[in-house]
Design brief:
Two copies of one chain form a homodimer. By secondary structure, chain A is an alpha/beta fold. Chain A is 41% helix and 25% strand. Chain A has three domains: 169 residues, MoaB/Mog-like domain (Molybdenum Cofactor Biosythetic Enzyme, Chain A, 3-Layer(aba) Sandwich), CATH 3.40.980; 77 residues, Alpha-Beta Plaits (2-Layer Sandwich); 152 residues, Maf protein, CATH 3.90.950.20. At the A-B interface, α1, α2, β2, α11 and β14 of A face α2, β2, α8, β10 and α11 of B. β14 of chain A pairs antiparallel with β14 of chain B, so a sheet runs across the interface.
């Protein structure tokens, strides 16, 4: 069952923005057993977009189109689709009342450009009409078109939640398609490739996928088959084999983020957490609080960017900083103890390091990071060297620190440092 | 002068690999004043590739094609091009002797599949015949095709060194292309659309673009022309007109992030900053510290997620929290004063709110956020209502708080709340 993807936007054909939408859509469609035969990107350009839509009508069974659905004058996808697919524009009452609701809620003025968004090709059906993010589908000559906004987060959400199930439900392929995901942290691509090579022969028709999401890596295990029990039992076995090989590097077997996994384990163990952040500057705190309900286990933290803040808020001794430096195991240790005691939590977590690009030295090059964890029983510290730019060093530092909480509560060893 | 890009490879249409070649080529061509009208990716598929080449022949002046030039059986670009562009395959002696040299140097056996690589469409001219990395060009019906390997490093090298100079030497384009960017915060898409509508007639050939980057919006102003001074003076005028309409909603006229702009203004004014974060959980701190050198003005902060942390670290009075609640102007005010005094900074910034999805009430619905700024002279507070999911509420809260520092130091009024 084959289809194609059309992405619209001047930013794509001018090279200003990478076309992540088509990449994501192609990956998801392929993993679901569908075939993508063509990806076309065009500018906000009536002629080229119209051509692309007509060509798709003549050669594909399903077509995903992204971009050009907003309210500015260069958002012309509805008009172009109406012309190219011969479905005149009509006022869509469902869409209009959605826009009116939006205008009412935000107490803004209704404008012509907003009203324009309610004019949709005849026969269009809204995708996710109750949600904040919508698109529409349109069936012409038995070809299913899915028109989605160009914002990557929104596109991904709509593809996964509505478009893919709709396409899969429509075609007689092997009816059951299941995918498992294993998210790993601390195992790099070459080591995962080795694991794949060593087991691929044992997994028969199972399809393995690898997706880097810095600093994580995601492994997918997919299979299409005739019925749920047989597909599931083959996938169970494949997942077990891979799990054994990756061990505690796997932090979750579902779509959760590390901070959700950590939050879950903290709650299960009835433990509370506080953090003392230097080089991460608040990144651990903001990730922990991205999870709804995190106030149940996360008490807060101190962003002790200056030495004085480390001394005032965390009771790090001035002497420790003077003797060993702010980036040292000793300072990290006192930060973790200090925040745990000041915030009255079970666990105190601390990170201090050099995110760069300046501030490195021969002894302590950019990317040197100390992590410490203080619990009721014991204090742990470890030194790491992370590579990459400032933001990447911060991301790895925060991820490693969160991973420490997970491994500590699971009784697994920490990833070793240097 | 317009052209297009065709990239070939199963790894592209299956989503396994991001198509960095077309992105790079599009960016380089656009920056050189050429226009890319379409990017097409197809699999290693004779039919689709042939169609794409024929279509390009009928609609473009130049075409860059990458992929499918190797020696494996799925590398069929030469054959497909020969058929589609009606240039029969011939043995190319220059290519053959290159392959023979390669075989001799490496002391490997000449194979049929290696020999196959010497069969090229009639009229093809090798690109970089003396180098290790080659491609070929082919002119049919006055359309210039450039066939390049799919390996990104090689493609980039050949584009920059041979293809781009060749195209530019061939066409009389308006040589100068310049683009300005204005990043705005707090002006939504409909209002920007209205501004565009009201000024587009006054801007003649200038091209305006609009790009949402939640929670910011970016406006681009582009122009192509004969020489730098005339292009610049028209763009100056357009930028001035738009600047007047957007006023202090524009936070930068370059690629900087809000936190870089804020950091710059803090340094210029020799002011230091500390933050007290409740619902943002550390997001303001991590954004400020994404900027290299931020330790010069950012002292740190307190993530006071629990009430106890607000009382212990920020000296918020228990009575204030009990009387007005943790999410209130009064608490925000004491947080800002508290963090400013505890961290010994010129400015103390505080955010407290309800990020959701739980915790809202009739009086204080999800998205209610109080911001406070305490300076040596005065304390400001304001109440906002942000929309969207938890992360979006956090993003808007952090952005608004950073915007306060910018506007405060610039002497501009804050964006009004509710």
């Amino acid at each position: 069952m084959h289809g194609e993807i059309i992405t619209i936007g001047n930013e794509l054909v001018s090279g200003r923005t990478q076309d992540l939408n088509s990449w994501y859509a192609a990956g998801r469609l392929t993993a679901s057993g569908l075939k993508v035969t063509r990806v076309t990107s065009v500018g906000d350009d009536e002629k080229r977009t119209g051509e692309a839509l007509k060509r798709a009508l003549n050669s594909s069974r399903f077509v995903i189109v992204t971009g050009g659905l907003g309210s500015t004058t260069d958002d012309m996808t509805c008009e172009i689709a109406a012309n190219a697919l011969d479905c005149p524009l009509c006022l869509d009452h469902q869409m209009l009342s959605k826009i009116e609701e939006y205008v009412r809620d935000r107490k803004i003025q209704m404008t012509e450009s907003l009203k324009k968004m309610a004019r949709m090709p005849k026969g269009a059906r809204m995708i996710n009409p109750k949600g904040a993010t919508c698109g529409f589908s349109l069936v012409t000559e038995d070809v299913h078109f899915y028109f989605l906004p160009g914002v990557p987060d929104q596109t991904r959400y709509l593809i996964d939640t509505f478009v893919l199930p709709d396409i899969l439900g429509r075609y007689e392929t092997l009816p059951v398609m299941r995918q498992r995901i294993i998210k790993v942290y601390g195992l790099d691509e070459p080591r995962i490739a080795e694991i794949f090579n060593s087991i691929e022969r044992r997994l028969e028709e199972v399809v393995l996928g690898f997706y880097p999401h810095f600093p994580e890596n995601h492994i997918t295990i997919s299979l299409r088959g005739r019925d749920e029990p047989s597909v599931s039992s083959i996938l169970d076995r494949a997942e077990r084999i891979i799990s054994e090989m990756v061990g505690p590097y796997a932090f979750t077997h579902d779509s959760r983020e590390m901070e959700e996994v950590v939050g879950h384990i903290l709650q299960k163990n009835e433990k509370t957490l506080s953090v003392a952040e230097s080089c991460t500057g608040g990144l651990i705190g903001t990730r922990l609080t991205d999870v709804a309900g995190s106030s149940r286990y996360f008490q807060g933290g101190v962003v002790s960017y200056s030495n004085q803040a480390k001394i005032d808020f965390l009771r790090v001794s001035r002497k420790t900083i003077e003797s060993y430096g702010a980036v040292s195991a000793e300072t990290a240790r006192e930060m973790a103890m200090g925040v745990r005691s000041a915030m009255h939590t079970d666990i105190g977590l601390a990170v201090t390091g050099i995110a760069g690009p300046d501030g490195g030295s021969r002894d302590k090059p950019v990317g040197t990071v100390h992590i410490a964890l203080s619990s009721e029983k014991k204090i742990f510290t470890e030194k790491y060297r992370f590579w990459g730019k400032r933001k990447q060093v911060k991301l790895n530092s925060a991820m490693m620190a969160l991973d420490w909480v997970r491994r500590y509560l699971n009784g697994d060893p920490f990833i070793s440092g240097i």
